[in-house]
Amino acid sequence: MSKRTKVRFIINPTSGPKSRVDVTARIQQHLNHQKFEYELVYTEYAGHAPKLAREAANAGVEVVVAVGGDGTVNEVARGLLNTDTALAILPKGSGNGLARHLKVPMNIDGALRVLNQENITTIDSGEINGLPFFTTAGIGFDAYISSVFAGNQKRGLQTYVELVMKEVRNYTHLPVKASINGNSLETDCYVMAFANAAQYGNNAYIAPLADIRDGLLDVCLVRRMDLVKALDISYCMLTKQLANASSAEYFKTAEQVTVETEEEMMFHVDGDYMGKARKFEVRMRPLSLRVLVP
Ligand SMILES: Nc1ncnc2c1ncn2[C@@H]1O[C@H](COP(=O)(O)OP(=O)(O)OP(=O)(O)O)[C@@H](O)[C@H]1O
């Protein structure tokens, strides 16, 4: 028998809805065992997955599978950056932005079929204040929502939408100084989203023009918010029209974006709240991660 590909599944037991499919049984049933030899490891705490992924890469494991949502994908992918080991995704979160962008099926069996095909491409990643992101990062309202969502007992899309509807009136813009494509900009900022992939997850397209292999950062700025704009932006996100919407401004850049604020602003990385800062430096790392795609 020819040499089998080594695969490590890194499973976040806390991610996704409570009623979950038995992932290990599905792997046993649907993985092509003639092609792959595999092991399963479980994360024991937040921040464990990068170590588990890097350890696998150093040991010559060819594919590491993130079993979880975008937070888990971020942690696993971080550990694999600039290595020969490829990332695969078994989506188990509520948003699954990177998996959706890459057209990985949302069901475990379909995602395992993608794994079995072993079709690999290389994608960009982004970095905000030195922290890697693969889907989106952002400052302002979306980070505020991720901070509130993190403390919420209930998860899922409905909870998320309810939270956004409630908090959109409570959150207010802050003045920022930004440098984008060599232009200085003094503006109010309700939200500034930095995108590698086109969507936040759940088919909410914050950056419909994003190409994950073009080396470019897509930036979406909403200066101020009111109810009419909130409805327009929601509609445009769901219909992939945000790049042309009057309520938002959209840029693509190959250069570093710098944003400075007097007052600390919250930021997130792939939907996980990261804290506050007064200065943000955002850049791309072109073609820095190998991934399995359909
Ligand atoms: N064993 C663990 N215990 C507690 N937290 C963990 C553990 N393993 C990973 N985490 C943390 O859980 C966070 C959320 O995981 P993930 O995004 O995969 O699931 P989710 O929040 O259910 O999905 P979504 O983001 O799509 O809603 C990760 O960022 C990670 O830091």
Automatic annotation (TrEMBL):
Listed cofactors: Mg(2+)
Annotated DAGKc domain residues: 2-132
GO biological process annotation, one example: phospholipid biosynthetic process
Protein source organism: Pontibacter mangrovi
Any one of the GO CC terms: plasma membrane
Alphabetized SMART domains for the sequence: DAGKc (SM00046)
Keyword Cell membrane in annotation: no
Alphabetized Pfam families for the sequence: DAGK_cat (PF00781), YegS_C (PF19279)
GO MF term set: ATP binding; kinase activity; metal ion binding
Phylogenetic placement of the source organism: Bacteria, Pseudomonadati, Bacteroidota, Cytophagia, Cytophagales
Designated name of the protein: YegS/Rv2252/BmrU family lipid kinase
This protein's UniProt keywords: ATP-binding, Kinase, Lipid biosynthesis, Lipid metabolism, Magnesium, Metal-binding, Nucleotide-binding, Phospholipid biosynthesis, Phospholipid metabolism, Transferase
